[in-house]
Write the structure tokens for this entry.
Amino acid sequence: MQFKDIVGQRDIINRLTAVIDSGRVSHAQRIIGDERDGSLQLAWAYLQYLCCEHKQHFENGELRADSCGECPSCKKISQLVHPDLHFIFPNPPNGSSNVSAEDYMKEFLDFMLNTHALGTLNDFNDTLSGDVKTSMIRETDAAHLVKVLSMKPYEGGWRMVVIWNADRMNAAAANELLKTLEEPLPMTIILLVDNYDKKLLPTIESRVQTIKLKAGSEKSKVEDNPEFAGMLVGWLRMLFKLKMKELSAQVDKMAALNREQLKLFLQYGLGTMRACFLATAAGVECHLGSGDEKFDSQFPKMITTNNIELIESAFDDAIFAIERNAYAKIALMELSFRISKALKKR
């Protein structure tokens, strides 16, 4: 996961990379925000940048820096196989008092990869046929974490922990974790990720640095825009046939939007593609709102693990081009060809 894969939150990302570059990394941080706004994505990309061997820095653009995505560390973290990367998350009791996140680790890592870390706790519990009301982070989870952190890191670098939905910790788990937060080991970072403020024990809250994501990223601001929905569907249909005359006319309509509206339209399109992917990969309910029931039911199946990264990259590049005052029709035609090609890779 790279920062460029996250929609929005650019100011926060740039502050985080600046802190890492300065070497002043806090050992315990709390990321508060909705999953759909990228809270778990941010934790994932943050750790990948922290450990990246060839960090990239940009003079122009929305991002000041990002991980390279190619070094051994980046590849391991992006695939969630780094031996010093650990996760704690709410898990159902499953009839045993000793159950812990370790019992569901494979399912959780698959869930993260399949949803690009945009799924919710409800979505995860659906994959387990579990009840979210009984899922929690228990003392057994915290005790396992303390044990893991007492060992030397396999690769001699950072020990990394992500506690997802940290607000679901029970009191025993929070108290078990407290000593680790009070007396941090060197080269250890713990990221607590949750949706709600003021639901952790005050003793935990006082020992973590808080990062609050902007509520409602750009992708959700245009979620219910009927004009954008109709325009997007008309354009996507053109991409299957690629009849240049009709496609050119459709692109002209899109290019007629003013620059800010066009940027919002592209963000709307990217958000729609991600919603389709979640519907395909994790069974998350998807409401495209195009007004065409057949399209709404069939199109999400076109967005899969085989093409979602190509599609995200194409939209990100188009948004960047528009922000840099590129000629709109050229940027949109390039986007059209790239999306058309990606859709064939499903």
